[in-house]
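Reopening this one. Same input as before:
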Amino acid sequence: MKKMILKGKPNSPSKDLNVNWTSPGNLLFKNNRCQGKAVVGQSGGCTAVINQSLAGVVEEARTCRAITGILGSRNGIEGILNGSFVNLKAKPSKSILRIAQSPSAALGSSRYKLKLGDDRKIIASLRKHNIRYVFLIGGNDTANTSLQIAKAAEKDHYEIRVIHIPKTIDNDLIETDHSPGYGSVARFAAVTTQEAALDTKAMKNVDPVKIIELMGRNSGWIVAASALLKKAPEDAPHLLLIPEVPFDETAFIKRTEAILQSVGYCVIVISETIRDYQGNRIGCKTEGVTADPFGHQYVEGTAARLAAILEKNLGVRARFDKPGTIQRMSMAYISETDQKEAYQAGVHAVQWALRGLTRVMVGFERKPGKKYLITYKSVPLEKIPNCERDLPLGFFDKKKGMVTPAFIEYALPLLGKNLPRFASL
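Same output, byte for byte:
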């Protein structure tokens, strides 16, 4: 997979609907009166706000005469292949909005990778049900699936509008300032790290080291967010380990020892996918099912491994926490900013499709200025698949193992308002 390494702020998305693309796939249909049903599906890892995007699609589609029905595809693209649908138009708005306030994927998610001939089956299913609008909510792999459907429809001369609505806690999609789902998991990481730090500080005479293992696949965006509420150098977290920086065991032991001597306790936040200099994952799974259908390797035991290293070399007790999938869908730590943006991503997808736009992703663009403000920009789908966005070099200080002020300026607004303020004696 191609890596996108940024030196400053994330890429600026492509222009909005004012651009009349001339390439075959990225176009505005001249005939915007395409009548038929809409289908929406959810894919990939669930988040706290993926149902907000679902609700945005459904509620906006209700208002459109060109959309004659609204179907929910059970388990992502699998529902379209199998003809397994939910009649969302028949669901009261009150029910849909309650679902929007619920975590996980209400329609069921999927990590199904299209097989040879599936594209033709999908187009046949869309024809059978007179589906003309396709909205898929998901990450990088979902963008690729959306592109394949759009290409298959064009080849088969079946007019549909395909819009990809981004969703990923990993925040590694390119061509967008950030992705729905990240703001909430970032808030979870920031707040729970401070909570764990207070516990570790109180228990430092017994358990002076705490290692927190967070998700993020191949990038350190979530781990970086754990430092967003850090106020002073001696405050936790004291050390961050991200996939973009190779893990050095000797340096890790020395840094931890120095922190223990100067602060008295040490809170370390790590990505579950940190690697050594040879690219080997520290906690990779070696038995049973080791990867998902798209080849993404499963991991286990990274924090436990590091805790054992510290206990052996420093002779101190090292505890570890691994929230796992809880972190990506915790409603107690929800970001209202994330909720609103995810909902609007669904709304914009419908509006764009009705105006004739297809084969694009809903991207976010941040407006310059002190006040946080984003607009929604259409991004050609051809730009998205097989690319990942690393944590930019300007957002992380390798020598200190800590985020920079530039990252805090970027990420803090995504957490939303009413952040807790902790104190200690």
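So the earlier flakiness isn't reproducible anymore. For the record, The longest strand covers residues 131-138.
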